[in-house]
Structures are given as C-alpha cells and as structure tokens.
Amino acid sequence: MIVGYKYIGMRAIVLARRDFRENDQVITVYTTERGKLDLVARGIKKIIAKNSAHLEPFSFVDIDITIGKEADYVTKVHPVDFFVPIRSDLNKSLMSQYLLSLVSKLLNVGEEDKRIFDLLISWFRFVNSTEFSGVILLDAFVMQFFALLGFQPALEACVVCDRSYKSMMKADIKGKHKPGFYFSGGGLVCEDCKLQKRSIGEQIIDCGLREVSDMQMLLQADWRTVVEFAMEDSTYQKLHKLVYEFVVYHSEKEIGDWEFRF
Ligand SMILES: [Zn+2]
C-alpha cells in the first residue's frame, strides 16, 4: 500500500468506534473495496465535527481514506443512510449492535468480500423499513453470514450415505425417523448414520426434519419471507437452538446466545 494514497468515496458501514489517544478515535468499518478496516479519525473529540455523528455504529457512509505510514485515516465522511427508524426502536438497535459485534469479531482486518457488504446493507435496509423486530431476523442473518464465510450446511441429503431428505420425510410418519446434525461432517445425517457415527464417538446432535427445513429457509429466503414465515414458539425455539449450536461449533471466538438478549 502506498503511503499518502487516497481512496475517494469508498462505501462503508461503521461497525464500531472507540477512543484512541487524547482527541482521536478508531473507527472500524466494513468497506466494499477493502473489507474490514480500522481507521483513525483525528480530532474527533476536539471539534464537534460534523463528521462525528456520521461515524456512529451502523451508519452507512461514503468515506475518503488516506493511507498513512502507521495507520490509515478517515479524511472525509458523507452520510448515505443513518437508519433512523432502527435507532429509535430499542429492540432493533440492540439486534443491530449484536449483529455488528458478531461480524466485527469474526472478520479479520483486510479480508474483503463484497457479498458480506451487500448482506449487511440489505439486512439494515430491511430492518429499517419493517415493523417487525423479532430475533428470527438475526438467526437468518447469522446463517447467511456463516454460509458466506464458507460454512454452508448440507441439508438436502445425509452427508454420510446420501440418503435424501425426501426419503427421510417418507420414513418420518409418526415422527419415527430421528435424524441428526453432524457438525464436523457438514450437515444432516440420517438416523442410521447418526447411530453409527455416534458409536465411534462422533458428536452429533438430535434434530427434527422440521428444523432442518426451517434452517434451509433461513439460508435461502429473503428477509421478508423470513418475517412472514409462520412458526409456533416451540418450533422456533428448536430452530434457534440448532442455529446457535451451529454457530458456536464454527466460531473460533466465544459467541453469546443472542436469543436471551432481547
Ligand atoms: Zn445416512
């Protein structure tokens, strides 16, 4: 990277900000072109800078960045969307903050993926525009985010013997077929493979076929469909538990359960 080089008008979403030295702050952003970046904003506390308000977490901005020797600097900020309806709704704000801390924790500086940027923006735009503030929106985001990180579970057939989901459904009359979720194997396993793998000490959690199809929905549906998807509370609890265990398994960092926060 060339010192003094300027990026003009880079699209970014603010993930976090923290104090740095006496008058400066470090702003963590996710950008279209360079992924996650830590940027120094100078003099942000000294002057009641008009830039300052735009650098709140989950602000969507255009920023100019100057590459420095020791750090990169924000030199200009232009607001694109401040997501005011989210900020005025406590539940939505908490969900958004949780989401950003998760994203910030799991991404490394400099890793770029335009799809992650698009996923973030589409989620914030949707949450900003809907009346709904249920935590299933976080479950859906988390599944789609993990899929982009390379952890897309295989749910259409047993990952060991390839028996199809449909064939398991046929055997499931009266809830007789008891499949499992095999994290290190990458997804769904039929009952026979579950028992066989367990007997050699592999870790597999029990799950119903309903949760598996609901998880598929979270992975593939747009946000509106997720919101409109009718689900009883007990069904949702099972789905959430599966999503959470999936995330914990694939995260190297400690992740708190988001369901108890809202
Ligand atoms: Zn199998």
From TrEMBL:
Keywords: DNA damage, DNA recombination, DNA repair. Gene3D superfamilies: Nucleic acid-binding proteins, Recombination protein O, C-terminal domain. One of its GO terms (biological process) is DNA recombination. Pfam families: RecO_C, RecO_N. InterPro entries: ARFGAP/RecO, DNA_rep/recomb_RecO_N, NA-bd_OB-fold, RecO, RecO_C. GO terms for cellular component: bacterial nucleoid. It comes from the Bacteria. The keyword Cell membrane does not apply. Residues 10-82 form the DNA replication/recombination mediator RecO N-terminal domain. Belongs to the RecO family. HAMAP family: RecO. Involved in DNA repair and RecF pathway recombination. This is DNA repair protein RecO. The lineage of its organism: Bacteria, Candidatus Magasanikiibacteriota. The gene is recO.
